[in-house]
Amino acid sequence: xxxxxxxxxxxxxxxxxxxxxxxxxxxxxxxxxxxxxxxxxxxxxxxxxxxxxxxxxxxxxxxxxxxxxxxxxxxxxxxxxxxxxxxxxxxxxxxxxxxxxxxxxxxxxxxxxxxxxxxxxxxxxxxx
Length: 128
Hints:
This protein is α+β, with helices and mostly antiparallel strands. It has helices spanning 49-66, 87-94; strands spanning 4-7, 22-25, 28-34, 74-81, 104-109, 119-126.
């Protein structure tokens, strides 16, 4: 088995369970799901779905940076929404962080997320 490297950023919220922010195995980087927590306070950000999605992408951006990567390295995005009616709003925020060719993606409706978040997003990236 390839060596695992644990990735951590103080600019993203600390894990709220027994997991790492990200793990790199070989050239593949697996980012755990991020919710819209403010890394400075550990509290859920106030605001609508766009505000929450933007905070999630900022948290993911910080973890990617800790691995010397960015959104151009991302090959898969997993989005979890408590209301699929927010699909379009999250798409608009996602377009602010990704350029074509876009990564593969799934969007899944869920009953609830930790700390009553409206959105959670995880990523898989390939790095050099």
